[in-house]
């Protein structure tokens, strides 16, 4: 019986590198807001939006350093406002989420209530 080629070991990666957690996951301490300013709607855009939905939601992916890695619009308010919101959210800062005392990536859902400037 001949032996086949040696097995290639699976790549080793840190659990913290691949782990993304969310609110309600066991053993998670949620991120703490350091800076999270939501943009107000310019008056002209607010007038155009009259009668339209004024609430929305985004998922913010916060990395292990507390910076926003990505923003996903899950409930659109308006394409123009969504653009303002995503740009603002990319500047937000947090103290990172922790799992067993170790910083981890976190998906935070943020509800948006649009207000006129």
Structural overview:
Strand 7 and strand 8 form a beta hairpin. Residues 4-17 have low confidence and may be disordered. Strands 1, 2, 4, 5, 7 and 8 form a six-stranded mixed sheet that branches. This protein has one domain (19-113): TolA/TonB C-terminal domain (2-Layer Sandwich). The N and C termini lie far apart (79 Å). With 117 residues, it is α+β, with helices and mostly antiparallel strands. 19% of the residues lie in helices and 37% in strands. It is elongated.
Helix content: 10-25%
Largest sheet: 6 strands, mixed
H/E element string? Answer: HEEEHEEHEEE
Question: What fraction strand?
Answer: 35-45%
CATH superfamily membership, which one? TonB
Total strand segments: 8
Mean model confidence by pLDDT:
81
| SS-based class | alpha+beta
Under the CATH scheme, the architecture is: 2-Layer Sandwich
| Domain unit count | 1
Described by the principal axes of the CA atoms, the overall outline is elongated
Number of contiguous helices: 3
Q: Return the CATH topology.
A: TolA/TonB C-terminal domain
Low-confidence stretches: 4-17
């Amino acid at each position: 019986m001949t032996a086949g080629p040696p097995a290639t070991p699976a790549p080793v990666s840190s659990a913290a590198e691949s782990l993304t957690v969310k609110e309600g996951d066991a053993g998670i301490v949620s991120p703490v807001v350091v800076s999270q300013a939501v943009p107000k709607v310019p008056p002209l855009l607010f007038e155009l939006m009259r009668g339209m939905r004024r609430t929305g939601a985004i998922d913010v992916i916060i990395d292990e350093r507390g910076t926003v890695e990505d923003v996903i619009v899950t409930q659109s308010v308006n394409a123009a406002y969504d653009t303002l919101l995503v740009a603002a959210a990319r500047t937000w800062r947090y103290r990172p989420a922790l799992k067993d005392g170790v910083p981890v990536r976190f998906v935070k859902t943020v509800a948006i209530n649009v207000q006129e400037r």
